[in-house]
């Protein structure tokens, strides 16, 4: 008990400090404003007095008084200043885990608050209560959530949805009850709550697609009305859902068709279009699948980069191949954003470009590197540029890359050279011009550039062993200027490897190198020895070569580096045995003395060429983001390029078409008859009764012209089968719509004359036709009751007709 | 989901620490600092780094680091976007985001963080909705000064019925003077070759609005030439479909300043830039000569303002001697760059010229640095975008309307 008391005291003290701080702050602020004590005395005296009173109560030895003090702190002060109340809540949440017993004391207050008149207080009480991470209270929290799920206020319901994952993490055994609550919430038709409900779904029961079936179409329609963060959650769910419920729209694989179709996807002649095309487009999308894609499309225009990337994810993973190009432009737009966002978007673009480079090919110039780009952005841009290179843009690209090579930043210059190399490997046709570009760099003043370009050239020449003689000759000419060891070593290796094609040059190279042998770097020395051995093996009878090689070996024998001595010994062993045998055969003295050694040596000799000159495979150039395409677009695992906890790969497409009937069990209530309480329709809350969330909107006859559903419906008749039950209504709607359009036109005519006068270039403080506005006022007010955001769906309740 | 948030100051000490899903040990910050110190500049650290237990996502803005450890898979951009949103909101509340402004208002910061995120899920992120719940610090002061002498505090507590039904707009807004301003701000990103050829050029525009209108106005904004708009993105208040079909912006605006839309300008491929810079640089023995001239073209007679040219030189450069016929220049020996402050350039003025030489301790100083130019042109939009009319529905008053345009340099770079 005493322990408990001390804890209570600590809590109370902290609360007192907090309250003191706040009250002091207020007084201080007041002083700053030069308020004299005389003028403000009354107010501040009472305030401080009150604070002191609370402090006394908090310091008291009796629990009762303490609770009273706390309650007064929360309740009494809150009635004046919500801020203090929130601060107390923040304090509670932060320390509840350490002080579970104390936190429990507050539960009663929250339970009382749950019945408060004010929806904000109800919501806050639920939030704080569910946020107290003490497992004992999970049943109480569950009860509270159950209660709030049916709350009249959408805000409270949203908070209830947020509380579900908290309750789940507190006590996973409550899962069944929570799933029931989610099922109830899924029926909610408020776009305000839906995002949070899906977040809860994704965390508690991400694979219960059976719960989603009846709401799938509703989710698609509500997507545009949900808040930005909700949209991301919903699209995440829809992606997983679609991968299990629809068939692969690209049965021939993602690379099957590269051409873009300019034809509108949603146009009415879609079917005829499809049949016209060859086999590859014979696949017909499920109408629901199509609905999903269509609902996501406008979100590409969102200001939130995460939403845009989510849409890109849907289009990349779900859309028919001809549709996917729609995602490229908005993604490229995101490159004009904060650098962190740029980084993520570029990583995703790079991944998409490995599979479908043509998506980003038209935007090559957007990936040009700026001198201010961070290292990680620069590297990704270089990579994307090489991935999307084609015959058409390679000249521009190469010119650009060569600009980068001039950069004073050596790291950047070398990575640009590597990028040129990757281009050449990717496009054998262009290898020639890449090589020519690289050869020019050999005369650069920058050592690093020279070294890197020789290394890249070597790699390229290895790929085409047939006709590289000319280039190798050029390289050997540059030998005198090149000082970087790696580059020199690469050239010697090339000469040795392809010596057969360089009969005249190769021995001379060896001669020159032998002269400078002792001054060379270790790796170069090794390659010179190799070069000698290779030349000798090709032409064992040449005395000059023989002597040259012997000379090099002798130099190497006394080298400081044991690797070089070892190599020399090895090669000498290989060659010398042959030497002896040759000498014997030349002198024709001991013909019969074919010892077992020389048998072995003859075996070695026969294979000498093969030992030294076998085809070496060119090292393959891996792009740095290889392997990223294992991951879903937009995921964190993709950016990190390794799997992380919680990452789930996308499910494979089903091989057989799953049953669609589950989705037909529609809540038509949503799509047609009931007023949907989206943001838009609520936007006129000022005119409607406060409880607007919960009543179907009272609408009059005219229909909104630019309603989203309507817009799509009128444009795409294929959608109709979904709403068979509501066809009659549709017709009525259309009539209504006509009426309205004509009226609108009238309005426009009236206004048009005025509009022309409005020169709005600068300050347009002009007369906006007061007469006309007044005249139309009544009409407009009425019209505007429904003329809400394009997103909002003010639907007529059939009963009200 | 987002587990926690640490705000680190310039010396990378924690100034704000907020946990949404239980406590996370502060050691993650040490690990992070370790990684940062390995980079040459804090901007070179990739935004996501992996540790055995958490993935550390961070953004770096206003020399503060906002670091978020994330324990499991999440849409990475959601985290980054949310962190940026936090900074935006803080900027809106305190005017500027700095260590002092955060320390001075730490209680407001904690309230905001509490309100913006719930158990790792974003909750309320609209500035208008937040301001309804958490009062701006300066407003508190104002209220107190106003209420002083009055018997009881009439502090505004949002009650249930006034909570706005559209998240981005406060309800019950009242102004004595109803006014709305639009700023069309266009930024030119360009890379120009040393011989004046445009390598890439792109113009991005935003329409920034400041709305001070009472009630629930419904606005329709028409453009004279909407065709120049390409690939737009909108504030959530804009009705997408209305724009798709009629190319007009129809919206119920939030209260106060907000970004209405951003767009890319659909310019003819090689439309001439307003300014051309011609650098001529000769590298000689232990130094070199340079000549930089600036030509104005295509600004409809408007002057260039706030011109500032930064010309980096090789690290080995020790001394610079130059003359310029406009503005003034400084050679910064630390960053080894010339900073030429041009001020205002009238198109009729003679061509601004900076010429001189530099000496270097190296035989052949490295070249190939990129010149950056900063400028702005008032009352001029390079796209030619013009507002035609603004109609207001749903409210009967006649607001004061204003439109301004501004063109400025984004990343305007000239290769040498």
TrEMBL record, chain A:
Q: What family is this protein classified in?
A: Belongs to the adaptor complexes large subunit family.
Q: Name one GO cellular component term.
A: endomembrane system
Q: Where is the composition biased (Acidic residues)?
A: 727-785
Q: Which compartments is it annotated to reside in?
A: Endomembrane system
PANTHER family on file: ADAPTOR COMPLEX SUBUNIT BETA FAMILY MEMBER
The family database entries (Pfam families) matched by this protein are listed as: Adaptin_N
Q: A Gene Ontology biological process annotation?
A: intracellular protein transport
Arranged from A to Z, the UniProt key words for this protein are: Membrane, Protein transport, Transport
Q: Where is this region: Disordered?
A: 250-279, 673-694, 711-801
- Composition bias of kind Basic and acidic residues appears in 786-801
* Stated name of the protein: Adaptin N terminal region-domain-containing protein
Query: The Clathrin/coatomer adaptor adaptin-like N-terminal domain covers which part of the protein?
Result: 72-575
UniProtKB/TrEMBL annotation, chain B:
**Family matches, as SUPFAM superfamilies:** Second domain of Mu2 adaptin subunit (ap50) of ap2 adaptor, SNARE-like
Q: Which InterPro entries match?
A: Adaptor_comp_med_subunit (IPR050431), AP2_Mu_C_sf (IPR036168), AP_mu_sigma_su (IPR022775), Clathrin_mu (IPR001392), Clathrin_mu_CS (IPR018240), Longin-like_dom_sf (IPR011012), MHD (IPR028565)
In its UniProt entry, the species of origin is given as Glomus cerebriforme
GO BP annotations listed: intracellular protein transport; vesicle-mediated transport
Task: Please spell out the taxonomic lineage of the organism that makes this protein.
Answer: Eukaryota, Fungi, Fungi incertae sedis, Mucoromycota, Glomeromycotina
Query: Which residues belong to any copy of the MHD domain?
Result: 177-415
- What is the name of the protein in this document? Adaptor-related protein complex 3 mu 1 subunit-like protein
Respond yes or no to whether keyword Ligase is given for this record.
Answer: no
Cell location: Endomembrane system
Q: Does the keyword Membrane apply?
A: yes
Q: What UniProt keywords are attached to this protein's entry?
A: Membrane, Protein transport, Transport
Give the matching Gene3D superfamilies: 3.30.450.60, Mu homology domain, subdomain B
User: What is the similarity comment for this entry?
Assistant: Belongs to the adaptor complexes medium subunit family.
Q: Name one GO cellular component term.
A: clathrin adaptor complex
Please give one Pfam family short name: Clat_adaptor_s
